[in-house]
């Protein structure tokens, strides 16, 4: 078996804490800008950042929980806490979009809100865009390094926030230039569409892991190629290959047939070597192999004997 990963990854927790801190500052800035200007677009952006803050806290809790070792109640580990957190973050994005739509439609149906101190609002929103771009880039890099679904979701939140803030900034500029205050809630509706897109993408991606969808074809093929290399060491075939994601980890189990005459001791040693190689190509995957005799080989799953070369 591949060695279990234990302990909390400090790279993930520090990134999650940075996200919490940045979102807290952004909320304060946007509330100030929204109150000063009277812009519904800015206030909905503040709400969006509030949802981002909740998502960041969830991400922080989930990355700490997911790295805990298996226990009696969770024998397969806690990695799916990250996927669950990412799915919840996606739902929060969709809820935020619904609130934006409601408030924008209400403003369009009523008396237009006259905006004030627009240049100051533009300056504040520009500052929040810079912060979001910097922090989301950092979180995205950490998510790729650690394969963290929760950090990936958090980075997606902040990228969406940056994109919607750009739309709000452009809207404020247009209002300032034209004097058409109704452009403010219209821009907010455009922002809502972008938020829905990001939220739906995050929910669907996380749900595929939560329902144990198999690994991508290229990763399954990588497993098959590793098994084929073990033909010269007595492997005759394999079947019942099952592989899935859980958080940052891969879980693989399969039935492997050994040629007649292979001792149990040799088969056991080869199976462990096979587990180690699969774990190497799948970044520390947890691999379980069930041993079977050669007469269980099924058509199309044979492994050629070949010439084994230790090098």
Please report the distance between the alpha carbons of the first and last residues: 23 Å
**CATH-assigned fold name of the largest domain:** Alpha-lytic protease prodomain-like
**CATH top level assignment of the largest domain:** Mainly Alpha
Report helical residue fraction. Answer: 55-70%
Which class do the helix and strand fractions yield?
A: mainly alpha
Pfam family, one: Cation_efflux
GO cellular component, one term: plasma membrane
Membrane topology: Multi-pass membrane protein
Protein name: Cobalt-zinc-cadmium resistance protein
Structural topology:
Layout: H1 10-37, H2 40-66, H3 80-109, H4 118-146, H5 149-178, H6 183-210, H7 217-228, E1 235-246, E2 249-258, H8 264-281, E3 286-293
Parallel strand pairs: 2-3
Antiparallel strand pairs: 1-2
Helix pairs in contact: 1-2, 1-4, 2-3, 2-5, 2-6, 3-5, 3-6, 4-5, 5-6, 7-8
Domain Cation efflux protein cytoplasmic: 215-294
GO molecular function, one term: cadmium ion transmembrane transporter activity
Membrane topology: Multi-pass membrane protein
In short:
The chain is mainly α.
């Amino acid at each position: 078996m591949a060695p279990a990963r234990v302990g909390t990854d400090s790279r993930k927790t520090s990134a999650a804490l940075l996200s919490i801190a940045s979102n807290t500052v952004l909320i304060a800035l946007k509330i100030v800008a929204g109150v000063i200007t009277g812009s519904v677009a800015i206030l909905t952006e503040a709400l969006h950042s509030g949802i981002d803050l909740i998502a960041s806290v969830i991400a922080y809790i989930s990355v700490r929980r997911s790295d805990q070792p298996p226990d009696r109640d969770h024998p397969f580990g806690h990695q799916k806490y990250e996927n669950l957190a990412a799915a919840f973050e996606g739902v929060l994005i969709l809820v935020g979009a619904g609130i934006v739509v409601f408030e924008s439609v209400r403003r369009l149906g009523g008396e237009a809100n006259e905006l004030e101190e627009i240049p100051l609002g533009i300056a504040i929103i520009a500052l929040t865009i810079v912060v979001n771009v910097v922090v989301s880039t950092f979180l995205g890099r950490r998510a790729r390094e650690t394969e963290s679904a929760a950090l990936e979701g958090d980075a997606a939140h902040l990228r969406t926030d940056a994109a919607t803030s750009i739309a709000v900034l452009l809207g404020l500029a247009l209002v300032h230039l034209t004097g058409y205050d109704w452009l403010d809630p219209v821009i907010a509706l455009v922002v809502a569409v972008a938020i829905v897109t990001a939220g739906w993408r995050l929910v669907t991606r996380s749900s595929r892991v939560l329902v144990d969808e198999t690994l991508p074809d290229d990763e399954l093929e990588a497993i098959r190629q590793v098994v084929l290399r073990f033909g010269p060491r007595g492997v005759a075939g394999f079947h019942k290959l099952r592989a899935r994601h859980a958080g940052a980890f891969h879980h693989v189990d399969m039935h492997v047939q050994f040629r007649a005459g292979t001792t149990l001791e040799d088969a056991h040693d080869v199976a462990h070597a096979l587990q180690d190689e699969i774990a190497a190509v799948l970044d520390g995957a947890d691999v379980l192999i069930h041993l079977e005799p050669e007469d269980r080989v099924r058509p199309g799953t044979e492994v050629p004997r070949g010439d084994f070369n230790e090098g």
